[in-house]
TrEMBL record:
Transmembrane segment boundaries: none
Record-linked InterPro entries: HDOD (IPR013976)
Domain HDOD: 102-308
Highest taxon of the lineage: Bacteria
Gene3D superfamilies in the record: Hypothetical protein af1432 (1.10.3210.10)
PROSITE patterns reported for this sequence: HDOD
Pfam families noted in UniProt: HDOD (PF08668)
Protein name: HDOD domain-containing protein
Amino acid sequence: MTELASQQRTAKILNQRAHDLLLGHSFAHQQIGFIHTLDIDYGEPMKQRTLLQVEVAAQHKRQQGSTAHHKYRAQASEVLHNAIETAIFKQLNDIDAVIENTLGIEDGIATILDILAVKSASIGRLEPLINDLSWLGRELVTLVNLPYYRKQRSKNTSVKVDNPALALRYIGLENLRFIIPTFAVRHWMPHSTEPFSLLKRRLNESVMANALAAQKIAQMNDVNEVHAFTLGMLLDIGRVALTRLYLKTFEQVWQRKVQLARKENEKDLHTALLELKPDPLFLTTLLNNKSLEVSAKVIEKMALRYLPFKGVMQQLVSGVEKGDSMLPLTEVMLKARCYSQYLSLKEHQLIEPDEIVAWFSHFKFTKTELKTLQTSNFTNLAIQID
């Protein structure tokens, strides 16, 4: 295997591992074959009585029954998830409906992002659009009234802000270019990701780390940092959409099948279905295989006029066509995604030193980039409100 092929293989494996980690630390460990055993010494081993012959026969029968039940449950899960997959792909064929009903992206957001991307942007142009998005107005008012930012404003005034128009003026255009994309993606996140209790938090952390890494890398490579940050935020919109689609579709299809099994008196099937829960393996595979493609479709439908994302997303989804060169923003996004995933895997001790070297080499990180990124903050926006 050539060094390039080895690096590509490592990058692919680590990308999948990062997706697995979204669904849980133990699940990610299982996927790479880690089996943790806890050896506890309770002192003297407990004496066990010899099983009578009749007990041995009964135990064997129970094991057989349990094995048969597990096989039946696995078959029921396969049938259920085949139906779920069909339903999800059918919904993805109507991306407008996904944008409106699953993500809840309003047209006004795309217009606001476009205005913020141009030099002629002004608070006056933004104000009526933000007034039409009540949730965004509330978020901005809440932000400027946080004790941290009220303290920053105290040298001028510490009065409580009670309307979006005033909040906009305190925050300022430069800050809004980073705050609006952050609030928008946070607004589109699923309300709950049960039974994957940490998935919502990890999606939020992943999005923020990706956007901040993109901003830093863009600054070092003379690429527009606002473009990089905004696309860094939007890049995970496919993962958000697919997570919401899967959890909603699972519940709908599962309920129908449970009701049908009860109606037709299929007791074994009914029992098996009641034991089924959303499957992390199905979801991680869905996210890994389809999320970038869905992100590209959603971003294209947003019809952003002044943010040059279409060509970048095409390269991220399909690769660079023969004879073309990689767009600078594409390179920034690839590095940002790599670095944000690295941070997550490193935190959970799911990446080895040799894998890190191969991964960073594959994406051609420079020493300056890595040194700068190592001392950067990836958890929240560092903004000043005067």
